[in-house]
Write a structure and sequence with these properties.
CATH architecture of one domain: Orthogonal Bundle
CATH topology of one domain: Helix Hairpins
Largest sheet: none
Pfam family, one: Oxidored_q2
Membrane topology: Multi-pass membrane protein
Protein name: Na(+)/H(+) antiporter subunit C
Subcellular location: Cell membrane
Order of helices and strands: HHHHHH
GO cellular component, one term: plasma membrane
Radius of gyration: 31 Å
Length: about 160
């Protein structure tokens, strides 16, 4: 049996609208978009579960038994969506209290990186920042030197105990 075409279109519209709203700058629109995506996926679970049947736990009646897994997944998704929505509402309310608007503001570091990319500047690395004379020699970190340093620390620790 094919899935109901109207429900498939509803899923597409809800998830598509939710994605468009999540890409907005207003926290309330982002929250509404998240709720639309969650509800669209719940409808998708119900469409994917197939036709209705008898109760999965009671062995009474005739006909095929319905699959309990999509129902459990939809119930879990509802609970998770409710929790994340409550957290998002608290976040949006706190942002509104602090800034007077619920728009997401640009991060200063992101703006700095964008301006630097527009000028096509390359950031300096450790090797470029230090002159060659300031870099340590290759034999500076010899294994023998590390062993001598470890032995010196051990002998100092033994002297302190005495």
């Amino acid at each position: 049996m094919s899935p109901n075409l109207i429900l498939v279109i509803v899923v597409g519209v809800m998830v598509g609208s939710g994605v468009i709203l999540v890409l907005e700058r207003s926290l309330t629109r982002i929250l509404v978009g998240f709720v639309l995506i969650g509800n669209g996926l719940n409808v998708l679970f119900l469409v994917a579960s197939g036709p209705a049947g008898r109760a999965p736990l009671i062995d009474v009646g005739e006909g095929p038994m319905s699959d309990p897994l999509p129902q459990a997944m939809a119930l879990t998704a509802i609970v998770i969506t409710l929790g994340v929505t409550a957290f998002g509402l608290a976040l949006a309310y706190r942002a509104y209290q602090l800034t007077g608007t619920d728009d997401v503001q640009d991060d200063l570091e992101d703006d700095f990186i964008r301006r630097r990319a527009e000028r096509d500047e390359v950031s300096t690395t450790f090797d470029e920042a230090l002159p060659d004379e300031a870099l340590p020699d290759e034999d500076y970190l010899d294994n023998d030197d590390v062993g001598v340093a470890a032995d010196a620390e051990t002998s100092v620790g033994e002297e302190r105990r005495r």
